[in-house]
Design a protein that fits this description.
The protein is of the alpha/beta class. It has one domain. The chain is built from eleven helices and nine strands. The chain has a seven-stranded mixed sheet with strand order 1-9-8-2-5-3-4, sandwiched between helices. Strands 6-7 form a two-stranded antiparallel sheet. The longest helix is centred in the first third of the chain and has 23 residues, at about 50-75. It is globular and about 45 Å long.
């Protein structure tokens, strides 16, 4: 039944879905709670602290959610509304024949970004299984698309990534997800230490591929999306820590192009139980009470 409802939403005009999503996003933001506090705290870390900006960010989060059904099941219509004036970045990287690692932060419409990239050739993306059995049919149906292959975020998925890159193909992942199972380093992100994945950096160093940051900017009035690209300059830093830091800095650059469309409510600064020790220098910002406390709390 839920799948049928989502498919029904996909039939609505994009402008309706995004407008309704913005309204819902604003309504949710109006209620005090963890979501509102985290969105405010994370945006303020990056210097975005005006009430008007925070409301826009909440509205765009709602638009991101309600546009997904349209992107998933009316992909052709959505791709027709997608454009970029930076496609030469992709063409040049693919022409080198050594594979491309696309890194797409929680910015704009990351679902349309992946689908747009499949127009350049096969793309393998990494996903984390849904926490809800109710969502499994929706997610499985949404992944089915020509040239787009999804692999799980585990060792088998990493092996598939390496095979695809060695074939000269492209892979894509979200670089601002909090890593699991101890795979992470505390590195600055908008001026504060955040647990940062090293997987993307290790893949790039192991395979020698081009690394491109990309994001789909949501255009007003339901006019579609503009795809942005930022290729990391080469030679890349030669250690996972240095390259992961460079990726964080590149993400900041891309996010600042249209910051109200970043998912500021994502718990980017949490302290997982398996995280390495947090840098204890007094000059380093200490844990935010809105996020998980240190393990010894």
């Amino acid at each position: 039944m839920l799948l049928s409802l989502v498919r029904l939403l996909a039939r609505l005009p994009l402008s309706w879905l995004q407008s309704l999503g913005r309204l819902i996003g604003l309504l949710v933001y109006c209620f005090p709670g963890r979501y509102r506090r985290r969105l405010q705290a994370n945006a303020r870390r990056a210097g975005y602290d005006t009430p008007a900006f925070l409301r826009r960010a909440a509205a765009e989060s709602g638009a991101m959610i309600l546009e997904m059904p349209k992107v998933w099941w009316r992909t052709s219509q959505c791709l027709a509304l997608t454009r970029s004036d930076q496609e030469s970045v992709v063409h040049d990287a693919l022409a080198e024949g050594r594979g491309v690692l696309y890194l797409t932060p929680h910015l704009g419409c990351f679902e349309i970004t992946a689908r747009h990239l499949t127009q350049h050739g096969p793309l393998t993306v990494m996903f984390r299984p849904s926490r809800s059995a109710l969502l499994d049919p929706i997610v499985e149906s949404a992944r089915d698309m020509h040239n787009l292959r999804a692999v799980p975020a585990n060792r088998n998925g990493v092996r598939e990534f390496v095979r695809a890159l060695k074939r000269g193909e492209a892979v894509g992942m979200l670089p601002d997800q909090v890593p699991r199972e101890g795979d992470g380093l505390w590195l600055p992100f908008f001026g504060e230490y955040a647990l940062t994945m090293t997987l993307a950096a290790r893949l790039a160093l192991q395979t020698g591929v081009a690394v491109i940051l990309t994001a789909g900017e949501r255009l007003p009035g339901g006019r579609g999306w503009r795809i942005h690209y930022l290729r990391l300059p080469e030679p890349l830093p030669q250690t996972p820590e240095a390259l992961a830091l460079a990726i964080n800095q590149a993400m900041e650059t891309v996010i600042r192009r249209f910051p109200e469309q970043y998912l500021w409510s994502y718990n980017r600064y949490k302290w997982p139980d398996d995280a390495p020790p947090h840098p204890g220098d007094p000059a380093i910002p200490q844990p935010d009470p809105l996020n998980d406390p240190p393990r010894d709390a």
